[in-house]
Amino acid sequence: MTSKLKPIFKDNKAFIPFVVTNDPDFESTVNNVVALAEGGADIVELGLPFSDPVADGPVIQAADIRALKADPDISTDTFFDIVEAIRKETQVPLVFLTYLNIPFQYGYEKFCARCEALGVDGLVIPDLPVEERGEIDPFAAKHGIDIIPLVTPTSASRIEKIVSKATGFIYVVSSLGVTGERSKFADDLSELVTRIRTVTDVPTAIGFGIHTPEQAAEMTGIADGAIVGSACVNLVAEYGNQAPQKLTDYTKQMKTAIAGQTSKA
Amino acid sequence: MTELNLELNKNTTGRYGEYGGQYIPETLMNQLDLMTKAYEHYKNDPEFKTELHDLLVDYANRPSLLYYAKRMTEDLGGAQIYLKREDLNHTGAHKINNVIGQALLAKHMGKTRLIAETGAGQHGVATATIAALFGMECEVFMGKEDTDRQKLNVYRMELLGAKVHPVTSGSMVLKDAINAALQEWATRVDDTFYVMGSATGPHPYPLMVRDFQSIISQESKSQLKEQTGKLPDMVVACVGGGSNAIGSFANYIDEPSVQLVGAEAAGKGVDTDLTAATVERGSEGIFHGMKSMFLQNKTGQINPVYSISAGLDYPGVGPEHAALAASGRAQYVGITDDEAVDAFEYIAKTEGIVAAIESCHAVAYVQKIAPKMRKDQIIVCTLSGRGDKDVASIAKYKGVNIDD
Ligand SMILES: Cc1ncc(COP(=O)(O)O)c(C=O)c1O
């Protein structure tokens, strides 16, 4: 299977912003994603809101709650309707971040088929460790969807096992704990990325905690991309219908900061 | 008392039919791998087993009594009723059996800090107690709703030296406390062991908790044999996440003549939205590290649940119970708030036992089923805990003000 995501990292450090689907509503999600694409986002990561996002910190938890409060019985079909509306405006590469129960309830086959049809090229599933990938792998592979694995500073001897199955890109978690802005990252991130690169040529993107242009530059000095969640979600929460302009500006700023970075790892 | 048989369970894969597994963030996987290996090692280690045995006997007051409830039996006029008295354990519930096991494992793994979630507060109290005994740090996560319902247990934990964190996210009950404890663990794994309070979560928790709680049925089986020469016809226990129930069932699962019944919290009724009857009302899903049965909507969002009992209002159930329900080996029945409160008063007045409101869900089922059984038949009902913690809220439920 040839990944649609992998080539994005080829001659360019990738900036991957994140917003939550239906936060605060259908229309805003579409506008916000379009704004991120206009700013130059290389991939947009769309979170599917979940009632109990155990890997997420307070900012993204609050976004999930807003999204579900706006429409408590929101269906997975509506999530796909939002993507369909986005696709009328932009062809920016998209990945979902979703807890496994959502695709499980929808049916893995149907979920992956709809992702393929709408150009959602990858799935980041925080509660799917490599041991359980067999759940969804066959369906994802059939529809050309990358399952993006997470590697963390605690992965230790698990790294080889995790990344040997990777396609698309590898989500390198910057530090322990949950998502949210941080001022400090794990000390050994370069080592972690170096170790990954001895096993695979699948690109890496660092996420969890990145919010300033300086941090984005530093992280793309180590890895092939930077993922920014809580900072974008904060802009959405703070600026309401002014958020698109803010998101475009922020994306441009981050893109400038990482342009010309070369990996030291 | 004979040593706890940690080898009873032949299936150590973490899969119970299609249920179980390890659906948990990568940050925690290395710890779970280490824990699995450590448990597989220590459960065969004679020194570990002796330590465990000594703590269960000398500290927790095991074996617990198997008590023939004569007045209840006569009053209900059917099957003979035996009560497995986990309420008489140190700290007043079955939770201590599991905590001693996990905390001992934590100590052998070199951990110095225990964290736990708690609903009714019994598991938190047990964890705080053993942390004090072992000289370990302890932090307990408890939904804000539950810290209000169970003030006495909050103070008790603090008295034992634990720090209690009221959790204000989500519906502020047990499920949210588990989320918070998992998040805290992900932040600090090196010195910290998460002591899971029920037979739930990712492997190896359901396995370990079942093994440690299987002391309940190991004892009841030999005690009943001694007292009557027979096997029970039915074993009844309440089910929140399912730890006292799986421990009560474990030694009977391979005895097909023994009927196994779990009493779930139906809250205001199995057919209402104010319920926690997971097996009857739930559907298959993946949450809190396991594939099992959950109360959820069609999209897969986990539902808020309700029960008068803070220890039973969990939207899921341990994976082995999901498998026992699927195969039909065990039955699960919903007991409403009203039925449980009636049972609370009934067992107090007939047997002089103030039992936990959780346990009274099992008692309520016994009240229903015993009269329909023959007098030569035997029911073993687990009283998972004592009810002192519930007296104030039952008074309130009945409209009695005992505050000052
Ligand atoms: C006395 C008592 N019984 C039962 C339970 C329910 O837990 P489980 O189903 O794991 O036995 C609790 C939980 O807090 C409890 O305190």
TrEMBL record, chain A:
Q: Which EC numbers does the record give?
A: 4.2.1.20
Substrates-to-products reaction catalysed: (1S,2R)-1-C-(indol-3-yl)glycerol 3-phosphate + L-serine = D-glyceraldehyde 3-phosphate + L-tryptophan + H2O
**One Pfam family this chain carries?**
Trp_syntA
GO molecular function list? tryptophan synthase activity
CDD domains per record: Tryptophan_synthase_alpha
Residues of the active site are: E45 (proton acceptor), D56 (proton acceptor)
Please give the pathway this protein is involved in: Amino-acid biosynthesis; L-tryptophan biosynthesis; L-tryptophan from chorismate: step 5/5
Keyword terms, alphabetized: Amino-acid biosynthesis, Aromatic amino acid biosynthesis, Lyase, Tryptophan biosynthesis
Which superkingdom?
Bacteria
Does the UniProt entry include the keyword Lyase? yes
Q: To which protein family does this belong?
A: Belongs to the TrpA family.
Assembly and binders = Tetramer of two alpha and two beta chains.
Q: What role is this protein assigned?
A: The alpha subunit is responsible for the aldol cleavage of indoleglycerol phosphate to indole and glyceraldehyde 3-phosphate.
**Name of protein:** Tryptophan synthase alpha chain
Q: Which organism is it from?
A: Secundilactobacillus collinoides (Lactobacillus collinoides)
Q: List the taxonomic lineage.
A: Bacteria, Bacillati, Bacillota, Bacilli, Lactobacillales
Name the encoding gene, please: trpA
From TrEMBL, chain B:
For the modification N6-(pyridoxal phosphate)lysine, the affected residues are K95
What are the Tryptophan synthase beta chain-like PALP domain coordinates in residue numbering?
Answer: 60-385
Presence of keyword Cytoplasm: no
Cofactor(s) listed in the protein's UniProt record: pyridoxal 5'-phosphate
- What's in the GO CC field? cytoplasm
Q: What residue range is the signal peptide?
A: none
Under the heading CDD domains, the entry gives:
Trp-synth_B
Q: So, what pathway does this thing act in? A: Amino-acid biosynthesis; L-tryptophan biosynthesis; L-tryptophan from chorismate: step 5/5
Q: Which GO terms describe its molecular function?
A: isomerase activity; tryptophan synthase activity
Gene3D superfamilies the record matches: 3.40.50.1100
Enzyme Commission code(s) on record: 4.2.1.20
* Entry annotated with the keyword S-adenosyl-L-methionine: no
Q: Which UniProt keywords apply?
A: Amino-acid biosynthesis, Aromatic amino acid biosynthesis, Isomerase, Lyase, Pyridoxal phosphate, Tryptophan biosynthesis
One Pfam entry for this protein is: PALP
Reactions accelerated catalytically: (1S,2R)-1-C-(indol-3-yl)glycerol 3-phosphate + L-serine = D-glyceraldehyde 3-phosphate + L-tryptophan + H2O
Q: How does it assemble?
A: Tetramer of two alpha and two beta chains.
Q: What family classification does the UniProt entry report for this protein? A: Belongs to the TrpB family.
Primary role = The beta subunit is responsible for the synthesis of L-tryptophan from indole and L-serine.
State what protein this is by name.
Tryptophan synthase beta chain
Q: Which gene encodes it?
A: trpB
